[in-house]
Amino acid sequence: MEQSEREKLRRLNCKIDPIYRNHDEVLYPIAPPIVVARNPYPWESETNLPRITKEFFRCKGSPLNPPHVDTSGTHPEPIADCEGSTRHGLPIIHGKEGVYPVLIDLLNYLQKKTGHRVIVTCGHRCPIHNSYSDLSKENRVSKHQIGAEVDFYVQGMEDRPQEIAGLLMQYYQENAPNDKESIDFKRFEKTDLAIQPWFNKEIFIKLYQKGEGRDFDNRHPHPYLSVQVRYDREGKERVVYEWGKANKGYARS
Q1: CB 206 within 8 A of CB 226
Q2: Is residue 216 part of a domain?
Q3: How many helices (H) and strands (E) does the chain have?
Q4: Which end of the chain has fewer CB atoms < 10 Å from its terminal CB, N or C?
Q5: Torsion of Cα atoms, 99 then 102 then 108 then 113, to 10°
Q6: Dihedral of alpha carbons 181, 187, 191, 196, sign
Q7: φ and ψ of 105, to 5 deg
Q8: Cβ contacts of residue 211 below 8 Å, gap of 6+?
């Protein structure tokens, strides 16, 4: 009861003094905001980035993916995906399972130079997943099937793909400074891409803009780079697609 009486007295004695201000009245100037860069998380630093290995190139096929319908022929035909990397391995290259080593070296070099993580969107494709991902005729001889091609983008630098392409060329200037065929990159003119590809003796670099090169494995909205191997340093021979390499060159379980 005493508390209730005190509350009544407080309300009776309460006075309201409205405060009036003009719409443009400023009593205390507000300093403009300053953009402060976020400190990287521990796992985002260069020393904590995962090292790229052959495991990043495993086929991304899965039996859970719904079938596609091939309408290029007279009768629509369903195209099912493969059973994934749990049922088949990577290509056998020089007696070892994996991909061409230069692809791994290049991606780790990019991570070291940029401090950002490389996202591999497409490494090896078995022939079944290759057809499932892209039904075009050009894709039938894709070097993804023989472990000689990789599609990727750099996290945090998605809109700077030309800078990443420049770093790929810089790799050869640092690691093969006396090899003129390696450091001398040329432009490939016969292309449907907005930006002409680059190539040297060993690799071929394509840059796909946001509306280019979209397939099942590259459904993300970012520009991305594709690196193909043209020359095998260890075998000292050209790297070309062969049906036998693609269809019989990897282990199955």
Answers
A1: yes
A2: yes
A3: 6, 13
A4: N
A5: -160
A6: positive
A7: -60, -40
A8: none
167: closest CA among 208, 205, 216? Answer: 205
pLDDT of residue 142: 97
Q: Answer yes or no: is 163 within a domain.
A: yes
| pTM of this structure | 0.80
Per the structure, the complete domain to which residue 221 belongs is given by 50-252
Q: Which SS3 state, helix, strand or coil, does residue 119 take? A: strand
For residues 129-151, b (16+ Cβ closer than 10 Å) or e, as one string?
bbbbbbbeeeeeebbbbbbbbbb
Q: Report whether 121 contacts 153 (CB < 8 A).
A: yes
Low-confidence stretches of the chain (pLDDT < 70) are 42-47
Distance set, CA 120 to CA 52, 95, 153 (Å): 9, 24, 7
The string of pLDDT tens digits covering residues 201-210 is 999 999 999 9
Identify the pLDDT of residue 76. Answer: 84
DSSP for residue 112: H
Dihedral (CA of 245, 63, 228, 96) sign? negative
Residues in contact with 216: Cβ distance below 8 Å, sequence separation at least 6, in sequence order? 65, 68, 132, 133, 134
Tokens encoding 120: 């591999």
Residue 23 is assigned to a structural domain of this protein:
no
Using CA atoms, how far residue 31 sits from 24, 34, 37, 174, in Å, is 16, 9, 18, 47
